[in-house]
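subagent[fold] <- orchestrator: predict structure for attached chain, return tokens only, no commentary.
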Amino acid sequence: MSDTATGFRPVSDDTRPLPAVGGVLNSIYHGIEHVQVPSTFTSGAAVLQGCLPLFMAETSSEELIRRVGEKKAAQLQQLYRQSTLLNLYYSFELTQVLEALTTAAIPVMVLKGADIAETQYTRPELRHYGDIDLMVHPEDLKATFALLEQLGYHYYQEYRFEPLSRQRAAFVYVKEHDVGYLLFEVHISPHSNEMGIAFDPVQIWQRARSITVASVDVYGMGLEDMFIYLCWHYRSHTFERLLWLYDIAVMLIRCGDQLNWTQVRRLAHELGLLSTVYYCVLLCQQVFQVAIPGYAEIETFKPSVFICRLISHFVGDNLPAILDRTAYRKRKLLQRLMVDNMLMLSLVLFRAAFPHPAHLGRLYMDRSCLPLRLYWLYYPVHLLFILKTGFQTVFSQGRNKA
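subagent[fold] -> orchestrator:
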């Protein structure tokens, strides 16, 4: 947990402008006027793929009305007010939680959104929160739970299968409030998933940097670790939200010239995430016109020719097209094919067909009446779904070529 491992490199004084999102959102939705606006805003909502505050900040009232009409403009303005209120709640609660943990001498690391909002965004309030992720050492887990409960939070079982999972690395604690719920997710390790990527929390703690979040001195991932993790997180969630790509773009703009790209390459290689970093950077270049330092040598992250051809064949050469809200199948294919070599591709495809019991349980047991111990009965069902999807993909590619 030494600052000298990556250095304490503040970026709050950086005034370089961040990219706009309006044009990208217009392309994603085939016209911003086609966005389905929810009736109310809750913690889990991601209006405009999490970019509502960014969009509203860059769009005047007159322009908004011209683009979406008075009724939808009023709805978006109301949701923006609720989002702002939610962020104020999170800011206050985050201060309380971090102060309680540091007072109890519990080392705490702030992950992802709350870190990047405070240290990279020009205006932190424009970074939408769905939850806040914290990481503590395993031996501090019970004490952290106790402090959260003292602050009015209670454990939330996100999935029915969770109690039987032996690989749990995160626990959700919830508190009700006027806009919905506040969620804190307590980790002992960064998220992994069924694709076999696993981060070493011991190494991440050793490379941690000192940061100030919500006026409290805590830890954040080293910049190189955070950059790789943001890329992985975006891929892990099937490129669902533009906000997660925007986070990567913000980090490239704010500290692309501060990153130790040799270390990024080494860590990404060890994790099997060279291809993930390469394609996420490529997306940032093509979608947000982000400039990458030449010494980053981003082409050295590129996967083999065969992997590139697979992606070109099944996903296409127009990479920003995967952001289209109707392109879920292409996003899922890219998620699976974004690997470093053929061995990793084989492992990813095997895990897709025969996932870990914890992942299988999340997929099927929440909707099942079967006892949890019979989860294995869903393996043949899952395999049939995978085969069906595979055949549909091959046939659709054949029709497109014809």
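orchestrator: received. Logging for downstream: Residues 1-12 have pLDDT under 50 and may be disordered. The longest strand covers residues 170-177.
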